[in-house]
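#lab-general

N.A. 3:47 PM
ok so I finally got the sequence cleaned up, no stray characters, all 129 residues accounted for. can someone with queue access submit it? mine expired

B.Y. 3:52 PM
send it over

N.A. 3:53 PM
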Amino acid sequence: MNDIVLYPSKAWTAVWAVLCLGLAILFIAVVASQNEVHTESSTLIKIAIGSVFLLGAFFRNVYRLFNPIPRLLVNRAGITENATLQKVGLIPWADIGEITVYKDHLATLLGIVLKDPESFHKRLPSEKA
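B.Y. 4:20 PM
back already:
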Protein backbone atom coordinates (compact mmCIF):
# COMPACT_ATOMS: atom_id res chain seq x y z
CA MET A 1 0.00 0.00 0.00
CA ASN A 2 1.37 3.41 -0.98
CA ASP A 3 1.05 6.20 1.54
CA ILE A 4 -1.70 8.73 0.85
CA VAL A 5 -0.68 12.22 1.94
CA LEU A 6 -3.07 15.18 1.94
CA TYR A 7 -1.72 18.72 2.25
CA PRO A 8 -3.69 21.92 2.86
CA SER A 9 -4.60 23.96 -0.20
CA LYS A 10 -1.86 26.44 -1.15
CA ALA A 11 -4.51 28.74 -2.61
CA TRP A 12 -6.45 28.96 0.67
CA THR A 13 -3.24 29.42 2.64
CA ALA A 14 -2.31 32.33 0.36
CA VAL A 15 -5.82 33.83 0.65
CA TRP A 16 -5.64 33.68 4.46
CA ALA A 17 -2.17 35.25 4.40
CA VAL A 18 -3.34 38.17 2.24
CA LEU A 19 -6.49 38.61 4.33
CA CYS A 20 -4.50 38.70 7.59
CA LEU A 21 -2.02 41.18 6.13
CA GLY A 22 -4.78 43.42 4.81
CA LEU A 23 -6.61 43.50 8.13
CA ALA A 24 -3.35 44.08 10.02
CA ILE A 25 -2.53 47.05 7.79
CA LEU A 26 -6.05 48.43 8.31
CA PHE A 27 -5.70 48.05 12.09
CA ILE A 28 -2.28 49.71 12.06
CA ALA A 29 -3.71 52.60 10.00
CA VAL A 30 -6.45 53.10 12.59
CA VAL A 31 -3.88 53.23 15.40
CA ALA A 32 -1.60 55.55 13.38
CA SER A 33 -4.44 57.99 12.67
CA GLN A 34 -5.56 58.26 16.28
CA ASN A 35 -5.04 62.03 16.30
CA GLU A 36 -7.45 62.55 13.41
CA VAL A 37 -10.12 60.16 14.65
CA HIS A 38 -10.83 60.38 18.35
CA THR A 39 -10.78 56.85 19.70
CA GLU A 40 -10.61 55.67 23.29
CA SER A 41 -7.21 54.43 24.39
CA SER A 42 -8.61 51.04 25.47
CA THR A 43 -10.01 50.54 21.97
CA LEU A 44 -6.67 51.51 20.43
CA ILE A 45 -4.88 48.99 22.64
CA LYS A 46 -7.29 46.24 21.53
CA ILE A 47 -6.79 47.17 17.88
CA ALA A 48 -2.99 47.20 18.32
CA ILE A 49 -3.06 43.76 19.95
CA GLY A 50 -5.31 42.51 17.14
CA SER A 51 -2.87 43.80 14.54
CA VAL A 52 0.00 41.94 16.24
CA PHE A 53 -2.00 38.69 16.15
CA LEU A 54 -2.96 39.26 12.52
CA LEU A 55 0.68 39.90 11.56
CA GLY A 56 1.61 36.69 13.38
CA ALA A 57 -1.07 34.80 11.45
CA PHE A 58 0.22 36.34 8.21
CA PHE A 59 3.78 35.15 8.85
CA ARG A 60 2.54 31.72 9.93
CA ASN A 61 0.53 31.34 6.72
CA VAL A 62 3.46 32.48 4.58
CA TYR A 63 5.69 29.98 6.40
CA ARG A 64 3.14 27.18 5.87
CA LEU A 65 2.85 28.15 2.21
CA PHE A 66 6.48 27.17 1.69
CA ASN A 67 6.76 24.52 4.44
CA PRO A 68 3.41 22.68 4.51
CA ILE A 69 2.71 19.87 6.95
CA PRO A 70 0.44 17.01 5.90
CA ARG A 71 -3.12 17.29 7.18
CA LEU A 72 -3.74 13.58 6.77
CA LEU A 73 -1.50 10.58 6.19
CA VAL A 74 -2.97 7.17 5.40
CA ASN A 75 -0.63 4.18 5.51
CA ARG A 76 -0.39 0.60 6.79
CA ALA A 77 -0.16 1.76 10.41
CA GLY A 78 -3.40 3.75 10.26
CA ILE A 79 -4.44 7.34 9.73
CA THR A 80 -2.28 10.16 11.05
CA GLU A 81 -4.46 13.22 11.63
CA ASN A 82 -3.03 16.75 11.80
CA ALA A 83 -6.03 18.65 10.45
CA THR A 84 -7.95 19.42 13.65
CA LEU A 85 -7.00 21.74 16.46
CA GLN A 86 -6.00 18.80 18.70
CA LYS A 87 -3.79 17.14 16.04
CA VAL A 88 -4.56 13.67 17.39
CA GLY A 89 -1.73 11.97 15.51
CA LEU A 90 -1.80 8.28 14.61
CA ILE A 91 -5.13 6.47 14.78
CA PRO A 92 -4.35 2.76 14.32
CA TRP A 93 -6.56 0.73 11.97
CA ALA A 94 -7.50 -1.51 14.91
CA ASP A 95 -9.18 1.49 16.61
CA ILE A 96 -11.19 2.58 13.54
CA GLY A 97 -14.72 1.24 13.29
CA GLU A 98 -15.94 3.17 10.25
CA ILE A 99 -14.85 5.84 7.81
CA THR A 100 -17.38 8.08 6.12
CA VAL A 101 -17.12 10.91 3.62
CA TYR A 102 -19.74 13.63 3.79
CA LYS A 103 -20.37 17.16 2.56
CA ASP A 104 -20.82 20.14 4.85
CA HIS A 105 -21.79 23.15 2.72
CA LEU A 106 -18.72 23.67 0.49
CA ALA A 107 -16.35 21.27 2.25
CA THR A 108 -15.95 17.55 1.79
CA LEU A 109 -15.12 16.02 5.16
CA LEU A 110 -13.78 12.68 6.32
CA GLY A 111 -15.49 11.16 9.34
CA ILE A 112 -13.56 8.63 11.41
CA VAL A 113 -15.70 6.64 13.83
CA LEU A 114 -13.72 4.94 16.57
CA LYS A 115 -14.63 1.52 17.96
CA ASP A 116 -13.99 2.63 21.54
CA PRO A 117 -13.64 6.43 21.79
CA GLU A 118 -13.12 6.44 25.57
CA SER A 119 -10.23 3.98 25.40
CA PHE A 120 -8.61 5.98 22.58
CA HIS A 121 -9.13 9.23 24.49
CA LYS A 122 -7.38 7.80 27.57
CA ARG A 123 -4.31 6.87 25.49
CA LEU A 124 -3.84 10.42 24.21
CA PRO A 125 -1.21 12.61 25.87
CA SER A 126 -2.73 15.02 28.40
CA GLU A 127 -2.15 18.08 26.17
CA LYS A 128 -4.19 16.47 23.36
CA ALA A 129 -6.97 14.91 25.46
